[in-house]
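## retry 2 of 3
previous attempt timed out at serialization; input unchanged, resubmitting
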Amino acid sequence: MDQAEAIDRAAVEALCEAMCGVVSGDLSVRLQTTSADLTVQKLTLLANFMLETAQRAVERSRAYAGALDNVQRIARLSAWQLVLPEGEVRPVGTAAGLPDVAAAPLRGTAWFLDRVAPGCRAAVAALFQGDGGALEWRAADGEAWFRTEVAALRDEGGLSGYLVITQDISERRRATERIRYLAEHDPLTGLANRRRLHEQLEGELESSRRQGTKFAVHVIDVDRFKTVNDLFGHAEGDRLLVDLATCLRQEARESDMIARIGGDEFVILQAGIADARDAGALAGRLLGAVSARLAETGTRALAATVSIGIALAPDDGTTAEALLSHADMALYQVKSTGRNGFAFFNTEINEAQLARRRMEAELRRACERGEMAVHYQPLLEIASDQVVGFEALARWRWNGEEISPAVFIPVAEESGSIVEIGRFVLREACREAAGWPAKLRVAVNISALQIQDGGLPDLVANALEETGLEAGRLELEVTESLLLANAEAATEVLARIRALGVTISLDDFGTGYSSLATLRMFPFDKIKLDRSFVNDLGRLGEAEAIVMAVLGLGRALDVSVVAEGVETEEQAAMLRAAGCSLLQGYLIGRPAPIARFGAVIGRGGGNGAAREPERVHSLG
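## retry succeeded, writing output
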């Protein structure tokens, strides 16, 4: 029995010796025994099980600590504990964000508050009271931003300290500020956008109501900006807008807001003015400064000026919408009277704009209500002294009154209703011409919007098919400005129409930006010399020289030349002597319903017998 006890005691002693290695931290040790004693064997198995369990727990703890470190690193977090009442600071994780301290342990929060911008320190210090809280704060260097959350720690004795977690939110803050900036600013020029302008206008209006102050709203629009884009490209147009924004900044005061609210439309909110003279003085300075800056390069010469409309608050409006609308009306007044100037809103402008808007609305339904009609103006061939065709012209009768085409056509073009009107004139002209006994030609004017609409070739083809008019009897007239608006698209559309057998003539030749270049864009069948040159014949020698040059150009290109606006015998004689082949104008015949030209189209008296036939002038 004593021998057995000695053997057991030796086995236990061996186990104890092996456990000493575990005490030093090596949990990989596994105990072994040669004892036959079941108790010793059980003790060995249990010890090994405990060691294995402890080793796995330590490994898991290390993995968790590593994951915590990664989380802190990725999320840019730092964490530490403030232990009370001693104020000892203990790190949490390896990315604790604590300063290196070689001597005594770190204590208190002063070291932390030194990192905070002075304006935020009091609020951050208050987090270390009561239950804590959360706060975003700017760093002392003024660049970085952080968010700190402080949570109170409690035990049986009450408040035992605070857990402090701080995250670097500089990137998020910069992204948020960028989003906010983009929401309130124009990305091209850096100026305020429409949203920011409205906010500022509302604020100024509120100040005006409380304090009785005045301010002005200047709406600024670049003259002929579309032409710059069309001729030189959008990149050049953008550069022009950036230059304009720089110029406006230089001329306006720091207290004034400058905004870009559209493609080439800018607004200056001029605060704190005494009266209209202050607004007029700023507008005058802007006109001169902008003109000088935008004319610096040749490519921008077409848009070297701006037009400005001004509304005064509170006299011209007590809402942001009213002020902008009224300034826009004043701007339109400047545009309609020659551009490169400024105008103040007044009630007369308001009435004119209201009338224009009513006209726009009425034009949209004019064709539907049967108010549109087509009149025809004859075209005389000099060689045969015969009418060889007619130009179809839109006429509008509104509220029992004939509206001049010079009035309603520009409105129709700007409002878009010219597309429907052009469709009506084309179909009506084809229908009418198809029924003429005399196989005369008919010409129809085409607008830029009809080209942009994209469906013009199909419209022409359908009109010819529906009416039975021979394609060779239809002629479409286009202007140089129409081609310049989008030369590639326009020439493609015109080529498709010409392929149908329809002829194409260039209208108002000589008034565009590059007439000779225009003739190279497309093989026109006819050139129509602008009436301004014909009108000056016999009065200005330059006009005669230009007419001779155009006629010579027509002969060189084997293209017929039509002289428009012929009103006197003297003009007709000079054109005939110069070799012009076709004449059109009041001398030949005024536009009238086709029934007035019954004899010319081969109908005799026709359905116009009750009326006196329209006289067609003969050169014989």
